[in-house]
Amino acid sequence: MNNETLATVYHGIIIHSLDIGNLEFIRNGLLAVHPDGHIAFLERDVGQLVKEHLFIIFSYSQVVTLSEHQFLIPGFIDTHAHAPQYVYAGTGLDLPLLNWLSTYTFPRESAFSSPTYALDVYKRVISRFLRNGTTTCAWFATIHLEATKLLVDVIRANGQRAFVGKVNMDTCGPDYYVEKIDDSVESTRDFIQYVLDSEPDTSKSSNSSNTAKPTRLVTPIITPRFAVSCTAPLLDSLSTLASEHDLPIQSHLSENPSECELVQSLFPHCRDYTSVYDHYKLLTPRTIMAHGIHLSSEEIAILRDRGTGISHCPNSNFALQSGVCDVRRLLNAGVKVGLGTDVAGGYAPSILDAVRQAMTASKACKIQYLARAEERVERDPDYNVLTIPEVFYLATMGGAKLLNLEDVVGNFVPGKEFDALLVDVGVADGPIDVFDHDTTESLFEKFLYLGDERSLRAVWVKGRRVAGSSNSDEF
Ligand code: GUN
Ligand code: FE
What we know:
- The strands form 4 sheets. Strands 1, 2, 3, 4, 5, 16, 17 and 18 form an 8-stranded mixed sheet that branches. The protein has a 4-stranded parallel sheet with strand order 6-7-8-10. A 4-stranded parallel sheet has the order 12-13-14-15.
- It has helices at residues 48-52, 54-57, 97-110, 115-131, 145-158, 181-198, 202-205, 232-245, 257-266, 273-279, 297-306, 314-319, 327-332, 351-371, 388-402, 440-450, and strands spanning 7-19, 22-33, 39-43, 61-65, 70-74, 76-82, 134-140, 161-165, 167-168, 218-220, 223-224, 249-253, 287-291, 309-312, 337-339, 420-424, 456-461, 464-467.
- It is built from 16 helices and 18 strands.
- The chain is α/β, with parallel strands linked by helices.
- It is globular and about 70 Å long.
- Pathway: Purine metabolism; guanine degradation; xanthine from guanine: step 1/1.
């Protein structure tokens, strides 16, 4: 029997979210992964006898015993990022949104008319995100059909789970980077067909009886860039395409005050920014809206009622001076929330960074509520900043729920697929120092605040090893 046909059993510390406030630390855990990538079982606190006889009990499996400074966590889920923008990540952060788009973004994105250039960039960005532990990502590409197909090919070759959108924009763009409406709709149709037809349908070949329904690795997602860049007929056509093919939708919402004013002037018949998307039937339970910073209570209620969620992109919200998103307010209202890097509005290709900046954003909210810094903010000394269990939930299960993948990934419930990270906080020359007083809980927290690529010894998607700082199967 070769390794491909063997189940793998991991023994050691396993950490995952059961619910938003419910972070589970399993100390003596056993997690078994079926060769088809599904989690076969998860056992808690196995006894000494089992520990001593693992290799006999699981003689038909590979057994991996983790060290005391290692633990398994679910893979990170990035609910909003722009693959082409990776080329200028970490630069051009001196302008607010609308100027930033016309000065840096559109010129860079227009270069993806060249498939050769696109292929080189897309290989690098996917590899970078996987090394940072992003096992699932909702990607914006560009308006170019061929380059966007190549992004799908690269994602599949590298084994990331992804939603990929060909960007739609038929107005308010520069002459060199705008589409005609018919081309925009036609190429989106072509793109959807390409993605749906080119992934082998694993449901036909799977013969394992104890596993959940197989899922596709790459899903096409309808991607109107934002209300500013789409005419009303284009928004109409895109919502029709989404419902015809039962597809998810992604866009930007209420990111920057000037953008909100512009949307209001372009769509005067709609009460507010959220109502524009609602009017064109783009707010569905499968819609992901990035940012959602400057929303009224009425707008938040619409999102909740439609089942539409928000991708919280704190790095970008600070870097482009867009504002501070009050995630607690969204959560309290029952709106789904996940984390996003929003590369390159956000400069870091890492959900660990999003975790840190989400904590800072939450504290900035609290400071505002304490000081009543602005008239429109009521003083609230009892405002609760995000906790470690909550922010980790947003990085994993919250993202899975936002993408409607909660039955597939996000935690280690048996039957789900094994998208996971093997974290090592004791890695030689790594970013973390371990002291005698440290506990499993404190090491987990240190990883969230101090960890980096070096701390991720292995990264798996659907049970397949796709990245990691360890060069071998010895972790
Ligand atoms: N709004 C419209 N396009 C974009 C983009 O590329 N990035 C961000 N952050 N906001 C946008
Ligand atoms: Fe964005």
